[in-house]
Specification:
By secondary structure, the protein is an all-beta fold. It has 2 domains: 203 residues, no CATH class; 121 residues, Sandwich (Gamma-B Crystallin, domain 1). The strands form 10 sheets. The protein has a 6-stranded antiparallel sheet, with no helix packed on it.
């Protein structure tokens, strides 16, 4: 199982304020226009109050206009409200759920990017290196020759084994009138297979979850609360969100539930490379010699099952057996798929 490492630990963003006493729940949180807040163009209402230079920045935990009120406590931040973050949850933040989250910019005031997993893994197949087969290791059967007393491979005959690689001397004055040699059978053939290594494209989700969260503690709220915008624009999901590892039920006031996989089970790979030895065979070649001891070759003949009548005069002969052909590689094909892992992240948003 491949663990997505971009998601921070459960405690990493609790610094945004773990819940305790609450003064306002999301079921009492009605979206209102932000004074001077941006709409079209995407992103939440701006973290700035909308005034001219030196106005209150509503999510930085600083009294920017020096009027004694910070962030949500400042009248300039009418587009923001205090949000109670339930115990054990992280937040607040704004959620993007769609393709290519890496291309989505978090707006001003929300610089912290939190990868909360995804859905619908995209199964890009593995790339498999080609399968290859080494030179065949072949064991050939014992060749044999059938000698005939008459021409055209007829009449009395006898089948005799011919030792491969040895010099055989003709005995006496006997000479056959014709003969037929069969190619030896393959007793055993094997090729060493290689290749089929898998190269896996990085797993990715068709729908990726991204939370943009404030980079510092916001102010102007009671303990256990954080300042958050009342309105959120596309491409982000409507409403301010909280999140937590595991398959969780949403707390009251955060009724829009999103569940993402925090990991994937990557079963991609390549089928094993094998070698088909059906194309490997054995051949035999008979060589005649004018002298004993297999000296002075005079003619050669293949053991191909054909009748041989023009037998040269010879004092000795030898038989050479060789392997022919090559193995055919098989396998090395992409296999498997990606599935969502058991680890999940729940994101709950208030509309």
């Amino acid at each position: 199982m491949l663990r997505r490492s971009a998601f921070p630990s459960v405690t990493a963003l609790v610094a945004l304020l773990a819940a305790s006493a609450c003064t306002q729940d999301f079921d009492q949180f009605n979206p209102l226009p932000s004074p001077g807040g941006g709409g079209g163009g995407g992103g939440p209402t701006t973290a700035t109050s909308g005034g001219t230079g030196g106005g209150e920045q509503c999510l930085n935990g600083v009294d920017d206009d020096r009027d004694g009120a910070i962030d949500c406590a400042d009248d300039d931040c009418g587009g923001f409200a205090c949000v109670a973050v339930p115990e054990g949850w992280q937040g607040p933040g704004i959620l993007y759920a769609g393709p290519d989250a890496a291309d989505v910019d978090c707006p001003a005031g929300f610089p912290r990017r939190v990868d909360v997993g995804g859905r619908d893994p995209i199964a890009e197949p593995a790339t498999c290196s080609p399968c290859t087969c080494g030179a065949p290791s072949v064991e050939c059967g014992a060749p044999a020759v059938t000698i005939y007393g008459n021409d055209a491979c007829s009449g009395l005959n006898v089948t005799l084994p011919v030792p491969a690689g040895e010099c055989v001397r003709f005995q006496g004055s006997f000479r056959p009138d014709s003969y037929k040699g069969e190619a030896p059978d393959v007793a055993r053939a094997r090729c060493e297979a290689s290749g089929g290594e898998a190269t896996l494209p990085p797993p990715r989700f068709g729908t990726e979850g991204l939370v943009c969260a404030p980079g510092t503690d916001s102010g102007g709220c009671a303990a256990g609360e954080a300042c958050a915008p009342r309105e959120v624009d596309a491409p982000f999901e409507p409403g301010v969100c909280i999140w937590r590892e595991g398959d969780r039920r949403c707390p009251p006031g955060f009724d829009e539930r999103h569940e993402f996989a925090a990991s994937v089970d990557d079963g991609r790979g390549c089928t094993r490379c094998t070698c088909d030895a059906d194309g490997v065979g054995c051949s035999a070649t008979l060589t005649f010699f004018a002298q004993t001891g297999c000296r002075r070759p005079t003619a050669t003949a293949a053991f191909d099952g054909a009748c041989a009548e023009d037998i040269p005069s010879a004092e000795s002969l030898s038989l050479e057996v060789t392997a022919t052909g090559t193995c055919r590689p098989r396998g090395g094909n992409p296999t498997g798929e990606i599935e969502e892992g058991d680890d999940t992240i729940t994101v709950c948003c208030a509309r």
